[in-house]
Amino acid sequence: GNPRRRAGAVVVARAQEASAGGATQTSTKRTALVKIGTRGSPLALAQAYLTRDLLKQKHPELSEDGAIEIKIIKTTGDKVLSQPLADIGGKGLFTKEVDEALLDGRVDIAVHSMKDVPTYLPKGTILPCNLPREDVRDAFISPVGNSLADLPEKSVIGSASLRRRAQILAKHPTFEVVNFRGNVQSRLRKLEEGDVTATLLAYAGLRRLDLQDKITAVLDLEEMLPAVAQGAIGIACRESR
What we know:
The chain is of the alpha/beta class. It has helices at residues 3-17, 42-58, 76-79, 96-103, 162-171, 184-192, 203-208; strands spanning 24-25, 34-38, 68-72, 109-113, 125-130, 138-141, 156-158, 176-178, 198-202, 217-218, 233-238. The strands form two sheets. The chain has a six-stranded mixed beta sheet with strand order 1-3-2-4-11-5. Helix 2 (42-58) links the parallel strand 2 (34-38) and strand 3 (68-72).
């Protein structure tokens, strides 16, 4: 079978099994050599599992059961879904609590989507490496048309991104852009239920979750400029290590 598809299915299953916050995933009770901190969304877990697998490839001693532990940490961005991100603090909403766990020693490394990382890192942390970058473009998803230009006037577009909102309304001033929060799967479900006419998501995230079949079109950079650092995964650690 398709390894990416299998990985995507495993990610979703593990996310559903994880508790709301602070859950620990490890196959044995041995003391882990490396503890990875991550958010608990399916996409965040996919990125943590990718990091774990790359560590195992590079360091055979980490391939033993329980050598790497993944700790799920709930962030402010995960808890507050009713408001636009800009209204509750913008950058750092999906990283602050994970970085706090890093600083107090609960985890050894933190896996972040680089577009969520604030310009200035928390004191005592460094971000020494990134994983190979994915495709940076946005994906357009709609049951109604093949592109934004195909949609009828007054279409409702779901997006929590100020960047996407500004670009959409600049070209399509009759559209309405509504706050659209939640993980990738929940947003796709809302779209299927008819809450909005269309939505835009990072192509990289859909690829990592093996959800390319949901995509209507991948947007050229001229049509939708992506977020800074979109598609990049950063690995943070304590400055003292």
